Amino acid sequence: MPPKRFNLSIFSQDDDEDEAPVPRTAKPKPKSASPAPPPPPASNDDDEEEDDYMSMAIPEPTSARETLTERMKRQQRERELRGRPKSKAELAREAAEKREAALAKSMLEAEEARSNKGLRMMKMMGYKPGTGLGSEKTWGKDDVRLEPVGVALKENRAGIGHATEVKRKLEDAAGPEGKRVQVAPEEFRERVKSEREEKRAQARFYAAQKVLEGLDMKRDFGVEEVDIGKAREIPLSSINVLWRGLVMHREEQERERRARYDMEQGLSAPRLPGYDRLHELDEVDKIALGVEPKILGEKMRSYVEDDAEEAEEEDEELREFEELPWAEKLEMIVSYLRTEHNYCFWCKWKYETAEMEGCPGTDEDSHG
Amino acid sequence: MDSGRPASKRPKAESSIDPSTNPYLAHMYDGSQNANQAGRLNGDGDGDWVLNSFERHNTTAEQAMKAENGPSNPFNGKPLSNQYFKILETRRNLPVHSQRQEFLDMFHSTQIMVFVGETGSGKTTQIPQFVLYDDLPHLFGRKQVACTQPRRVAAMSVAKRVADEMDVILGEEVGYNIRFEDNTGPKTILKYMTDGMLLREAMNDHNLDHYSCIILDEAHERTLATDILMGLLKEVSVRRPDLKIIIMSATLDAQKFQHYFNDAPLLAVPGRTHPVEIFYTAEPERDYVEAALRTVLQIHATEKEGDILLFLTGEEEIEDACRKIKLEADELLRETDCGPISVYALYGSLPPSQQQKIFEPAPPPRRPGGTPGRKVVVSTNIAETSLTIDGIVYVVDPGFSKQKVYNPRIRVESLLVSPISKASAQQRAGRAGRTRPGKCFRLYTEAAFKKELIEQTYPEILRSNLASTVLELKKLGIDDLVHFDFMDPPAPETMMRALEELNYLACLDDDGNLTALGKMASEFPLDPALAVMLISSPEFYCSNEILSLTALLSVPQIFTRPANARKRADEMKALFAHPDGDHLTMLNVYHAFKSPEAQNNPSQWCYDHFLSLRSLQSADNVRNQLARIMERNELELVSTSFEDKNYYTNIRKALCAGFFMQVAKKGQSGKAYVTVKDNQDVFIHPSTVLQQDNEWLIYNEFVLTTKNYIRTVTHVKAEWLLEIAPIYYDISTFPKGPIRTALERTIEKLKRKDAVNGKARRN
């Protein structure tokens, strides 16, 4: 008879929503708990440096050698790890790792096998390593058992096929390389620190962009005061890529504002209390209320298309620049300010000469 | 029957027999008329007995039925009772009955046959009787017919049933023989026994000369002993062409048996089954227990009359599920129109009286004409093949069962919740179609059924430590274990580990020959480590205590810990606790149990102290049986005086003599221990009585539950291990590490002590 599917409809309230939580430690963390030093970052970046967006780690620029500070930090972290008593969960995880490793290793290939008396006795009975036991008449050559039956520990009450399903979903979501790595507290701290630095660089970059806009406008277009109206007359492609993004962003905001304004103008029709959520009205009601759905719809579409066109004629140069890390962009804009305008972003001062006498240095640190 | 032959001549199962004293051992039949005449023993000389006119291996179903119709019992000549005829009527309605002639025809034509009949076809009770009427074992050389069962309970209950059917007293013509309990007598012609018992008998009777026919029942279960017996019978069948062999299986995958036994013919009796509709879930389940409960309640609320069978994995899970179903069903009963429900648990460790409850009918409707009630049985895989519950129409199958696993690489043996096989799933579904067309709800998707379930459950031989088996095979005279014709050969490493362990236990010498100790150990129906411990215990002046302990370790858990009284149970256990460990605590329990105070009212005493009366009683029984074997082997029963400060020390040392390969040393941090040689991190099972940390522990089991656990542990000392098992603790075989260092330090200490003592002596 044909198998059928059944649905546990009556008693299932929470079945469709919250899908099963993904097991947190799907994969044991690679090496961080062991006292062995981690491999130098640059040596094998192909395997190790999988882009793990789940952990939000920002890929650090890889330097070929570990610097002194890095080594000190690493050693400090290792000392901390060694000194700390292990938690129950950690011990259990280590035990499980050790168990799995031992289960995966054939005793026949182990170093001790040579002195194993059991194996010696078997050889005396005519056993040849690499073959199975039993009478050759009984088993076909293909299904000889060479390995013991595996030991799989079931840790939850997930049904048959559930683990595969979760794995599949996870891979769908994260791509084939999507792996979860558990993060040690030190790594977490460093990650938070680098995130904070990123944010700071971003803010500085925007500030520098504005400064540069003012200076460039004045020098290239003779505009004293930055004015949106005037800026708009300048074709985007002729604007310095360093601050072109700023203008683009401003334009977008302006467009949005106008669109909102236009829409509100179009909605001057009377509204019934409780019916101010237009999308809930059906066509007939809208006409009855004088909302003119067709016209409104067209208008909306035109704005959408506008945006779409804009997006299509994408500015390759700008995209490349925007993709650079914040710190790098900031550095580029700061040095441009120095060379082109004799302006030090850190002193907040435009010097008269290219020597920029009085400025303590090129980087932020030298400015105290 | 007792025509001048002393009954004591009948060889007992465990005794070794000198063939010359047994007039029957040399007797071989080739089936010729001549031998028939010569071999025919005329019973009491009563020529009127109907069976005397039967021609052996040439009878018909008609003849047998006529004999069965009486009026006197064809096997003992006594008049037949009314109950006999009543049962006879139901027997004639069994599916196998209609194929009796077909069976006999095949039985006559071949030495080995495979018989397939589903549970409930009557094969276990009827086929051996069919054989009796044709093989007439008692008339031809006083042989017996043996029918093996994988489980003790089944052997006992089937023997009882068949004794009733044949209108004889259990233990006379029909008996049973299970480990630690032999209920057979000189008249016995049909013997139900565990497969393990037949294997033990074969150790002393390599050709199984007691038997004219051997029936291996429930062969589909592929227990370790059945697998070994099959390999053995395959060899014996060549040496004994007169021996008839029937392999009985409840599942249709019998081709494997046929192929194994050189294409033996097959007879299949169709079971009385109805179609079963199979349902799968649309999505995999996040929690199979919860899904199972929902499904049961949904069936109760929406499906027509019929009982439900739910398969879960273990005692705790089952009891919990029963409680929840009852609660939810009561709720449903108040809110809706559905009928009353009664829920029963079924698992192996349940007392038989409780197990009987599952056969009670479903409850009646609350009011006349109302919705009929429903019975729900929540069971382990006992209900998969071995037990038939009538009235089951719905089966809920989450797809898991607890299965034994053993891995030689880390020597761990555990019951683990594992996915069942496709064959198992089909078997479970079949349970729904016993009474009328049924439904089976599988709590997994069809894709998962196809992709994730293995075809057949791994036979036990692939999931077991083979130390016992190897010892048995050696005792069976099989020297080439590597090429023994296993139906499913185990992994080479499993064999290697078993041989190695037996060598360390000094049961096998370096060339793989059985030693004197090995021979003696094989006399005991015990694990080799336990047997060796018991045999060496007189040297430690505590064989009485070690005997008790061995018995206690051979029975199910003696401590009970009901979910609603855990704290109280733990307090009671603490009364018996010995600071050096669980083994000694068990011994304290046993001694207390044997005290006059407890024996005054044992069941009340056990109840009060959260102990299992059944386990303790069976430990008592096991102890008596083992004591007899010890006596036969001239092992003395001695004790150290309880006042002696070495009383417990001696027991702990004796433990080391058997379990020196199961030792763990305290690890460097926290609560973890490390097993010696295999180097596994393990934790002490929370059930232990040990309070403080000890450097070295001996453990009874290494199990996996949620973690790596060692269970039943006792504190020992490194110097004992070095002294008692010098080969295993040969320092040069240990890799550098904490264990080697600790052992080296102990050796140094011993040397210093020796030096001081030597000096003292010289002076």
UniProtKB/TrEMBL annotation, chain A:
Any one of the GO CC terms: kinetochore
Annotated Basic and acidic residues bias: 67-99
Domain G-patch: 114-165
SMART domains xrefs: DUF4187, G_patch
InterPro entries in the cross-refs: DUF4187 (IPR025239), G_patch_dom (IPR000467), GPATCH11 (IPR039249)
GO molecular-function term, one example from the UniProt record: nucleic acid binding
Domain of life: Eukaryota
Acidic residues biased stretches: 44-53
Region (Disordered): 1-99, 169-190
The protein's name in its UniProt record: G-patch domain-containing protein
Species for this entry: Sphaerosporella brunnea
TrEMBL record, chain B:
Catalytic activity: ATP + H2O = ADP + phosphate + H(+)
Record-linked PANTHER family: ATP-DEPENDENT RNA HELICASE, ATP-DEPENDENT RNA HELICASE DHX15 HOMOLOG
Biological source species: Sphaerosporella brunnea
Protein task: Pre-mRNA processing factor involved in disassembly of spliceosomes after the release of mature mRNA.
Name the record gives this protein: RNA helicase
GO cellular component term of the entry, any: post-mRNA release spliceosomal complex
Lineage: Eukaryota, Fungi, Dikarya, Ascomycota, Pezizomycotina
Compartmental location: Nucleus
Region feature (Disordered): 1-46
Gene Ontology biological process terms in this record: spliceosomal complex disassembly
SMART domains: DEXDc, HA2, HELICc
Main location: nucleus
Domain Helicase ATP-binding, chain residue ranges per copy: 104-270
SUPFAM superfamilies found in the cross-reference section: P-loop containing nucleoside triphosphate hydrolases
Listed InterPro entries: DEAD-box_helicase_OB_fold, DEAD/DEAH_box_helicase_dom, DHX15_DEXHc, DNA/RNA_helicase_DEAH_CS, HA2_WH, Helicase-assoc_dom, Helicase_ATP-bd, Helicase_C-like
MF terms (GO), sorted A to Z: ATP binding; hydrolase activity; RNA binding; RNA helicase activity
EC number: 3.6.4.13
